[in-house]
Amino acid sequence: MASLRYLLAAALVVAFVLEGSSPAQAQLSPFFYSSTCPNVTNIIREVLKNAFLSDIRIGASLIRLHFHDCFVNGCDASILLDNTTTIVSEKFAGPNINSARGFEVVDDMKAAVERACPGVVSCADILTIAAEESVALSGGPSWTNLLGRRDSRTANRTLANENLPGPNNTLTRLKDRFRNVGLNDNFDLVALSGAHTFGRAQCRTFSDRLFNFNNTGNPDPTLNTTLLQQLRQLCPQGGNGSVLTNLDVTTPDLFDNKYFFNLQIRKGLLQSDQELFSTPGADTAAIVNNAFFKNFVTSMIRMGNLKPLTGNQGEIRLNCRRVNGNSNIATRSSSSEAALVVAIALEGSSPSQAQLSPFFYSSTCPNVTNIIRGVLQKAFLSDIRIGASLIRLHFHDCFVNGCDASVLLDNTTTIDSEKFAAPNNNSARGFEVIDQMKAAVEKACPRVVSCADILTIAAEQSVALSGGPSWTNLLGRRDSRTANRTLANQNLPSPFDTLDRLKASFRNVGLNDNFDLVALSGAHTFGRAQCRFFSVRLFNFNNTGNPDPTLDATFLQQLRQLCPQGGNGSVLTNLDVTTPNVFDNKYFSNLRNRKGLLQSDQELFSTPGADTIDIVNVFRKNQAAFFKSFVTSMIRMGNLKPLTGNEGEIRLNCRRVNGNSNIQLSFSRLCLTNHHLKLSLRQIFTTPHALMHQTSFWNAFNSDIRITASLIRLHFHDCFVNGCDGSILLDNVANDTSIDSEKFSMANNNSARGFEVVDAMKAALESACPGIVSCADILAIASEQSVNLSGGPSWTVPLGRRDGRTANRSLADQNLPTPFQTLDLLKGRFTNVGLNDNTDLVALSGAHTFGRAQCQFFSQRLFNFNGTGNPDPTLNATLLAQLQQLCPQGGNGSVLTNLDLSTPDGFDNDYFSNLQANNGLLQSDQELFSTPGADTIPIVNNFSSNETAFFESFAVSMIRMGNLSLLTGTQGEIRSNCRRVNANNLSTRSSSDGGLVSSI
Q1: Total tally of structural domains belonging to the chain
Q2: What is the pLDDT of residue 789?
Q3: Which of 268, 658, 692, 816 gives 20 to 30 Å between its CA and that of 182?
């Protein structure tokens, strides 16, 4: 039968994980601390979350500690021990010295755990949990940790030097290291190496690849040449070996699979990384393309089982840095659990995180959870049902076009409210409490937190305040501008559904039809239901004239008294007859005893042969297993189709869309929107009157027709270097090495211009609104106005940026696209900063529809393209002849010519027509159209034939670029002078009360 096959498969999973394990290893259990320290994971997670706020590297550092612990005599926390007269600390082994870090955070975790559960949790288990939580909080998978390790009483520096893989290891050496400790030398090796998808490495760990690889006097031939040049600048020969750079050049702080993509394009930072893909004939190369998260979890569990001390072995240290004195704190021996439990906990344990983050409001509304909890606690005092009602609202929101707060919208002439869908009408409740939460949050953080995120947090807090688990919410959702009553009627599960119908409902929205279904149904462990939702079971089930045969006879009689035939259908009763107001696992015991109130509940256990029966039994026996699975499923459900970035809006009132009120500035009361900035821009061009007439447009720019293109270029070059923070505007300061002006980077030197115009804008704004508007926002608005005043589109500029206090010339050289780049290199530059490498690339390149370029930026195309001695074959012959006259070989490289031959000072779509005619001035422009098979070609064709499509895409990409790595809230400062940071970094008023808001 299906359930038997399932059990056998689950057993196989555990057997695979524990293959070859000793009896001691087999004692590890996911439930080891269920009774002695049930909140240990939550405690560790909270310490870790706080550490992340000040140290984004900490996740990678902690997982590395766990690796380096397990590779030396197993996972016994030996790496944490300090030197003593009898302990030769592993911290000073070659692979760890001046490199291993995070010990203070482990100390904090241990202290917090000891306060809650003294003498119970080992340092080895703390490291294990910290590693898993580090991955999960960084965007990677979550999994069930097998626990019960004990701590060693010694360390082994010699073995650390022998066993730990090195950054310079060949593939053969790496394989040996993995085999020696009991891991396999292909799947485990590749999967665990994938932890280098986040974190940093010091120059000394890879500098030999840059200059003298294997004593050849040459660089490593497997290293991408562009990356080689970047790394040589960062790590010059004989330079500071402790300088850090990102292990993953694409998404350095996220746990994803970009590390493997980097290997395929020869951008692995360490030799030991690149060897996995570049060693000829290696069996690891094919694994690079396999499912990463699933393999990583399996290998982490296997590594965590290397030679653990269990039972009475070792000790539970009171201080992770030293062994106990004479006291050996005894702990309970572990017990084995059902194989099914592990399979449940591991199944599908990596919910897609989209763009959501646990730190989304860290700077803009750091107390949002506390604010919502405070409102909820007051609501609980007068309405014990409110927790169950709020979690139900979150469910019913997410099942209809994703978690976008559409369920909260009232009826209007254009909104067909979901509140009146059959599953919600006269049933969904708690809207007033959401209103109160929104009001409280708006008071603290206006226009920052979405209603969708408020619902998400309220659901989690409702569970926690009712005795259930707590978890880290992934946040950053935005609110929909519409509702869909029809889809609500179609998608929402019904209390009358059969198991087949329930399974279909869950599959249809992207949830799985066994684990998610059973776990999320467990939310019926508290709350109430009206008689009308189950009375058919009492008298005329499925039109048989008889009650539901799966309903307990005693329970049936009780319900018939409460809900007589033909009686009041709105009478309420408890969903959980045992503990009606507590979030626990009694709901599953009720199902086993045939006391599920709703048909949809009882179907999970009473449908013959159902694969849900075994899961119900596990959750019935083990509350910890239910809580863990419930959290996983809630996070997965919360990730259903979220609106993020610039999608949707942040409603000011959860019951209605913003309408015109969406266009507001947080500092509008002080600065009358950006009127002064627009006015100052017009004054610089000549007079406002001239701009009112299309016929006088070009005369308005007589003083400097190029200024608009120059200003938009400044904004581009600002955002590509550590985000849109006004860093490009900073001058060098004598005797201040903290500012290495980006103006002198290769892409800007003797090229970037318009700084005086920005100064004039800043002066005008400071006169009207002193200390309010950042230089970064001035650049953003100036760009939009430059485009619009030149005949292009206008868009709403999100505002609220703050200014950086430093500049980074080195990063400017690395990040800024150059006019000589191939399409592959351009794509790399765009993806590196977080833009997409097709639509954003083509749309933003369209800014070359106006402005000028110097001969030095394209002359190699005219005479000696790619060192061939011939011109670029993709350059139109007529244009080639014209340009050779303008820019003779060996001539003045600063001579200017138009980027767009057709309409050089108008913002239109002629740039794309030029590309089609091989009249793109710069190599980087023409590559978009002339690279064979490029995915950019159809986009160029579309924009060439449809100016509206270009304008719309350009506006979207500009907004996206304007959101790169922002400083908001109290980060950075509001400079008084855009060319220099404020004296002593004196703080100024926040430019916005939170994140970006909309400009007029």
Answers
A1: 6
A2: 79
A3: 268
Binding residues for substrate: 493
Lookup: tokens for 625: 């297993």
- H-helix segments, 607-726: 612-621, 623-638, 668-671, 675-685, 688-691, 707-719
pLDDT value of position 19: 37
Q: Is 279 exposed, middle or buried (0-12, 13-18, 19+ CB in 10 A)?
A: middle
Question: What integer pLDDT is reported at residue 27 of this predicted model?
Answer: 65
Cβ proximity of 493 and 505 under 8 Å: yes
Angle at CA of residue 161, ends 160 and 165, nearest 5°:
85
Cα 609 to Cα 499: distance, rounded to the nearest angstrom: 11
Q: How far apart are CA 321 and CA 121, in angstroms?
A: 15
Query: Could you give the CA distance from residue 786 to residue 768 in angstroms, rounded to a whole number?
Result: 22
689 is catalytic: no
- Is residue 677 within 8 A of residue 781, CB to CB? The reply is yes
- Domain co-membership, 530 together with 560: yes
**573: which strand partners?**
529
Q: What residues of the chain score a pLDDT lower than 70?
A: 1-27, 286, 288-290, 326-355, 659-703, 984-1000
Residues 831 and 727 in one domain: no
In this structure, the strands spanning 852-854 and 896-898 are antiparallel
Annotated binding-site residues read 397, 400, 402, 404, 406, 418, 493, 524-525, 576, 579, 584
3-state secondary structure of 359: coil
CA distance 867 to 456: 58
What pLDDT does residue 659 have? 60
The answer to whether position 363 is within a domain reads: no
Q: Clarify whether residues 395 and 439 are in a common domain.
A: yes
**Helix (H), strand (E), coil (C) string for 305-328:** CCCCECCCCCECCCECCECCCCCC
Backbone angle region of 672, left / alpha / beta, with phi > 0 → left and psi within -120 to 50 → alpha? left
Separation between Cα atoms, residue 269 and residue 227, nearest integer Å: 9
Distance in angstroms (rounded) separating the CA atoms of residues 649 and 606: 44
For residue 249, the model assigns a pLDDT of 87
- Half-sphere exposure of residue 508: CA atoms within 13 angstroms, side-chain side: 16
313: left (phi over 0), alpha (psi -120 to 50) or beta: beta
Nearest Cα neighbor of 100 from 178, 158, 160 is: 160
CA distances from 3 to 429, 551, 608 (A): 38, 23, 10
Average per-residue pLDDT for the chain: 85
d(CA 371, CA 369): 5
User: Angle at the Cα of 680 (from 675 to 684), degrees rounded to 5?
Assistant: 150
Question: For residues 452 and 647, is the Cβ–Cβ distance under 8 A?
Answer: no
Residue 282's pLDDT is: 82
Give how far Cα 60 sits from Cα of 51, 141, 194, 913, Å: 12, 14, 11, 48
CA 844 to centroid of chain Cα atoms: 24
Assess whether 574 and 673 both reside in one domain.
Answer: no
CA-based torsion, 941, 946, 951, 952: positive or negative: negative
Quick one: 700 and 750 in the same domain?
yes
Q: In Å, how far from its chain's centre is CA 417?
A: 31
**Full residue range of the structural domain in which residue 479 is found:** 368-488
Task: Give the model's pLDDT for residue 288.
Answer: 56
Catalytic residue among 68, 196, 396, 715: 396
980 plus 859 within the same structural domain: no
What are the C-alpha distances in Å from 950 to residues 9, 389, 453?
53, 46, 33
Of 562, 333, 583, 379, residue with least CA distance to 471? 583
Let me know whether 155 and 122 are in one domain: yes
Residue recorded with tokens 């086993």: 592
